[in-house]
Design goal:
Strand order of the largest sheet: 3-4-5-10-7-6
Function: Assembles around the rod to form the L-ring and probably protects the motor/basal body from shearing forces during rotation.
InterPro entries: Flag_FlgI
Subcellular location: Bacterial flagellum basal body
Shape: flat
Strand content: 35-45%
Main location: other
Number of strands: 23
Organism: Blastochloris tepida
Length: 372
């Protein structure tokens, strides 16, 4: 009897395990992947500089006056007077330098930069960027860049052929800039935090606040709107806000999303969310093809007649209409059933775009259609 009960218990355990595995899996995500902490962000930097050492692939000074002026100003700062001198060098190029200042970037830390040609330079291969200050949106210098430019593309040209791979006028310099100024942002002294949702949604914001309150054990988090959750630092985390953030970031919630259909008409890409629903609707699709063929026929006069040989145009027009039967899409179908129903018509992505827009116009689709 005991052995029978043991076998029965093991079987029930296996059945329960299978049911648990086969049950619906919720797409939960970490709070870390759903929000950004207000104040903890990157800042864009930009600068203007010169790249030298190019093998004749630099800017044409006659066509790029800003390159000539920058070259003259740089040489004057170094004690070389070039005023009134005609310069014909092709080894210099004016460039724009961009970078991202990471959050909590400390003075002396190195960051990567991107160098892009500004004039008519053909390639930045083998060039060296001279000292270039990088400015923030407030006009202050936050980093200084310099180094050898590395590019992934190349260009080769001959008398009758030309080949270009990649973009040889854009390059990168790994660790090419040094941070000279830090952004004044003291995280440990803050008494409250604001979490900004990357995909604003009221339901998601409420779930994030509820998960944080359950973890802390008190009313610490409160959703302010569809894109912001305010978190008051608890007393036991005062002065150690980093520990609070690292623990909150690992909490998992199920994000909600609006039923949306995204259409890119240029490439024919269609992306539909899982909550897209339609009412009962019948759909038919047909293609009208008109083919116009132009030809010429030579008309010659009869023998011994006073006529001329002329070319008479001949036009042939064929009209063909390919139609499909009506397909009924039932109300409340899932995304998979909707896709299967549209695929049953045997249509391509571009015709499907028109069908989705027509269903939306009829009021039979409960989703937002966004055309890119």
């Amino acid at each position: 009897m005991l052995s029978f009960l043991a076998r029965l218990g093991s079987r029930l355990a296996v059945i329960g395990l299978v049911a648990l595995v086969a049950g619906p899996a919720f797409a939960q995500s970490r709070i870390k992947d759903l929000v950004d902490i207000e104040g903890v962000r990157e800042n864009q930097l930009i600068g203007y500089g010169l790249v030298v050492g190019l093998n004749g692939t630099g800017d044409t000074l006659n066509n790029s006056p800003f390159t000539r002026q920058s070259l003259q100003a740089m040489l004057e700062r170094l004690g070389v007077n070039t005023r009134g001198v005609t310069m014909r060098t092709g080894n210099v190029a004016a460039v724009m330098v961009t970078a991202k200042l990471p959050p909590f970037g400390t003075q002396g830390t190195r960051i990567d930069i991107v160098v892009s040609a500004l004039g008519d330079s053909k390639s930045l291969k083998g060039g060296t960027l001279l000292v270039t200050p990088l400015l923030g949106a407030d006009g202050n210098v936050y980093a200084v860049a310099q180094g050898t430019v590395a590019i992934a593309g190349f260009e080769a040209e001959g008398q009758a052929a030309r080949i270009t791979r990649g973009v040889p006028t854009v390059g990168r310099i790994a660790n090419g800039a040094i941070i000279e100024r830090e952004i004044d942002f003291v995280l440990p002294r803050m008494n409250s935090l604001r979490l900004a949702l990357r995909n604003p949604d009221l339901t998601t914001a409420r779930r994030i606040a509820a998960a944080i309150n359950d973890f802390v054990g008190g009313p610490t988090a409160e959703p302010l709107d569809r894109g912001t959750v305010n978190v008051t630092v608890p007393k036991n985390y005062q002065g150690n806000i980093v520990r609070l953030l690292t623990e909150v970031e690992q909490l998992r919630v199920e994000p909600d999303q609006t039923a949306r259909v995204v259409i890119d008409e240029q490439s024919g890409i269609i992306v539909m969310g899982r909550d897209v629903r339609v009412s009962t609707v019948a759909v038919a699709q047909g293609n009208l093809t008109v083919t116009v063929t132009e030809g010429a026929q030579v008309s010659q006069p009869q023998a011994f007649s006073d006529g001329r040989t002329v070319v008479v145009p001949r036009t042939q027009i064929d009209v063909k209409e390919d139609g499909h039967k009506l397909a009924v899409v039932e109300a409340g179908v899932s995304l998979q059933q909707l896709v299967d129903g549209l695929n049953a018509l045997g249509i391509g992505p571009r015709d499907m775009i028109s069908i989705l827009q027509a269903i939306k116009a009829s009021g039979a689709i409960q989703a937002e259609i966004e055309v890119m």
